[in-house]
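Section 5.1 Outputs to date
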Amino acid sequence: MAEGFNLNQKSTELLNQLDLYIKKHLDELTDQLSDCISKYGELIYEMQKTGEKGAIAYLQFSLLRTNILLNKHELRLDALDENWYLDTVECSSSYNVNEVLKYLTEFSDMVETLRKESPMRTTLREAQSRIFEESQKYQIFLAELIRLGMRKVVQTEGYRKIVKAPVFVACIGGLLDRVDILYKEDITEKDSREVRRYLQSKEQIVFNHEIYEKLDLSRGNYDGLKFLYSSFAGSDFTESSWNKGQLLFSDFSKCILKNTKMEETQFFEVNFSGAALEHVSFAGSKLSQVSFEGATLSNVDFDGALLVEEVNFNNAVLENTRIPESR
């Protein structure tokens, strides 16, 4: 029991230290990521020029168990075509994440120390299992770091050179295992009527990494839907309803929202920059880290809305619109 308590306490201490470190050094860490992927992009491009690799559909980051046990602080990088793991032409590299995984190594050292102190109570396999379990927490931190860093990555020359499949994702997970999508590009053509019909069917309520850009999604009932990491940039939502839903980490930049209801909805890190909002109601909604920069807001209703933090109205044009105080 004492061992478990010490490990749990150590785990919390190290994760708190890591959280503070990432917040303090976020720009530096994301710069390192963008430099790494840009160089990797050059390698991929050279293989594509010679015909060795085709269009890339998956850029995968993998936290390997062998690296964890060897205290090798890196993620494996793989560029894969639409066949994913069946892509037989290897194009791999690595991403140094010493600043993150050094905390996991400190935890691992404590696990090993405790095992040696009581070898009859804890086997080597049990100790390794505890370390692998802890590593999942660090993968969550790495996933968020990469997710944020992709904003810089996509602007690098090396990344832009990569020939990508119509649907391209960056993801993280174990090699030959399930993955979590961190970033997505989708240039496939979509039919506005089909998209509207599907969203209104409510067959699916929660959506991740959807890209419905420059579509006519007007006169739609999207009440109760939950979108994460999705983009509707440039789409038309005239006379639509988004009540009682959740919109998280999503993009509504340059959208048309006229006679649109977005009441009692949770907004977190949503981008309305450059959008045209006319007779839109956010009544009773909760907005946090939302940007209306450069947007036009005419007769927009924030009655009873809760503006929690960092709601940006820089360079926005307001007409008959009263902004409640942030709390």
